[in-house]
Amino acid sequence: MPTKTQLHELYYWMQLTRILEEKLVALYRTGKVVGGVYTGRGQEAIAIGTAYALEKDDLLAPMIRNLGSLLVRGFCPEDALAQYLARATSPTRGRDCNLHMGDLGKGVIAPISMLGALIPVMAGAALAVKIQKKRSVALTYIGDGGTSTTDFHEGLNFAAVRKVPLVLVIENNGWAYSTPVARQTANPEFVIRAQAYGVAGFQVDGNDVLAVYEAACKAMDHARQGNGPVLIEAKTMRMRGHAEHDDAWYVPRDEIEHWKTRDPVDRFERYLRETGSMSEEERNTILRRINGEVDRAAELAEQGPLPSGEDAAGGVYHETT
Amino acid sequence: MSPTTYLEAIRQGIWEEMERDERVFILGEDVGIYGGAFKVTEGMLERFGAHRVIDTPISESAIVGAAIGAAYMGLRPIAEMQFIDFISCAFDQITNFAAKSRYRWGAGVPMVIRGPSGGGVHGGPFHSQNPEMYFVHTPGLKVVAPSTAYDAKGLIKAAIRDEDPVIYLEHKFLYRRVKEELPQDDYTVPIGKAVIRRPGRDLVVLTYGAMVYIAMEAASELVKEGIDLEVIDLRSLLPLDKETILESVRRNNKVFVLHEDTRTGGIAGEIAAVICEEAFEYLDGPVLRVTALDTPVPYSPPLEEFFLPKVPDVLKTARMLASY
Ligand SMILES: Cc1ncc(C[n+]2csc(CCOP(=O)(O)OP(=O)(O)O)c2C)c(N)n1
Ligand SMILES: [Mg+2]
């Protein structure tokens, strides 16, 4: 069970993610973002509950809805905003978009757009951990849609056969763009796949940050002790369109309404209040801090210059100085 | 009659072929209920039904593989890649299964693989690519890249009717930016035929896709300086229309290639070789090229702009060549 300080930290990360994404959407609406905005609204508990369970030397590879994981691993709000604003001050210096950023120093491997591609790569990171006799684990995510890719199969099978410390989280949010899970797989119980690959598998309520955190700790212990990969299926709901341009008219209204009552931020807040773990004053202090940080980050990101054209050249290969 | 956009022209072409030939069907991610990420298949599910407009799992390899299997059975599949960048996930099915089938055992694979390609919309490294040369290097495939609404419609129809696998690259920058009046009657544009967009007398630029418009803009600048630039739109990259290319080289004696694809291994190199082999004695200058940089497609607008070939780049090369 997390300590009171940990509970407050979890709350901070949950709200920081939510409020930062709201800022991002606001910037998008005023035309400041270059390209689309993809939020993880309604799925914050999965990113945060899992990333919060990582230890210092562990590895993480985020997908597009995992802003929270990046924040927990040490990227700052300004990094994410500068990426979306295509600034020279962003981690990729404007070369790549949105959350396509990484930093090996932080143990974060940057994603590509091709769904599933991270899974073999993280299997390889976990393989290296094993070869190097480290005790790290590698954590990555995939959507319900992304489970249909070649790389999902090859990556998970490879990790399973080599018994490497990979924790793979399936974020089952019901939809892949306009495609519901029923047209993605004939067996919607994704956790069953763990059995097929011969790895451990847990199913968890993806809208309950404490349940996610607990499952992640269990999974990471299991992997760290040399028992091979773990598949976690986190059930949740994509509460926005695929990206902000998409109003998700194809998602039944009552499905959204049903999940609204299970909002992970509201639920956690209620839990903290009802268990007396966070006073109104403590809550307000955290929110004030977050709002200040997000406003400051937006200012900094907007002040950041765009890259100059010539910076497009070079950097493709190792350069000796 | 109002003009038809490039995007609508593709949609019409597919629609008419589906009306005309019940063997034609389309499969891809979000092509049904959603009508495709760019709305190319809008309304098709309602008109043709779920057995001919198939929403697939996110499985590019299976989309192309299934199209190949269905083609063997006598159907005429159109496989949509949501962005053409994801075609890399189906590389094996395309280059090893589809492309080699007829040569190995006589079984043709009449199918179309299509999707939005190209940059200029700040899509970043994975939503802006021009993957043509992976496939131009593969015997057994055909590769087309229309630049106008007329050609977009005519070429998609020709591709669907073709007996071999065709990669059809639709440039997303042109989707809603170019439009024209289209003929009422059924027509096709032959695969393997280039077209002279602007006849000229001094030098010729060979190009395709969105770069046709850059070439045309450059041509109207150059005219003011007394340089008459011929613009040829290749339309098909495989097979290449060598006849049209060589005929123009023999007339103009100076030639350069302009493409949005990156420089090394781009089609310009292949074209330069063909010209050197078959029309060397007609050349009054080197075969030059104007291309994108040899980097991934960068995202931030100033970077992408620097990366892509622009009108001034074309002017510079044209002037240099004209001075020979
Ligand atoms: C290999 C591949 N094919 C297609 C796409 C285009 N695409 C991006 S996100 C997406 C839907 C993803 O659904 P899911 O995996 O469930 O993740 P979610 O968006 O629900 O988080 C698609 C089809 C892609 N990125 N990669
Ligand atoms: Mg999903």
Task: Work out the oligomeric state of the chains in this entry.
Answer: heterodimer
**Order of strands in the sheet with most strands of chain B:** 3-2-4-5-7-6-12
Task: Indicate the CATH topology of the largest domain in chain B.
Answer: Rossmann fold
The profile of the biggest β sheet of chain B is:
7 strands, mixed
Strand portion of chain A, in percent? 5-15%
Fold and architecture overview:
The complex is a heterodimer of chains A (321) and B (324). Chain A is an alpha/beta fold and 321 residues long. Chain A has one domain (4-306): Rossmann fold. Helices cover 44% and strands 10% of the residues of chain A. In chain A, helix 1 (4-29) crosses helix 2 (44-51), helix 4 crosses helix 11 and helix 5 (118-131) runs parallel beside helix 6 (150-162). The longest helix of chain A has 26 residues, at 4-29. Chain A is globular and about 50 Å long. The relative contact order of chain A is 0.16. Chain B has two domains: 4-180, Thiamin diphosphate (ThDP)-binding fold, Pyr/PP domains (Rossmann fold, 3-Layer(aba) Sandwich), CATH 3.40.50; 195-322, Rossmann fold (3-Layer(aba) Sandwich). In chain B, helix 8 (242-252) crosses helix 9. The longest helix of chain B is centred in the N-terminal third of the chain and has 15 residues, at 6-20. Bound molecules: thiamine diphosphate (TPP) and magnesium ion. Thiamine diphosphate (TPP) sits between chains A (65, 113-115, 143-146, 149, 173, 175-177, 238, 242) and B (29, 58, 60, 82, 86, 89).
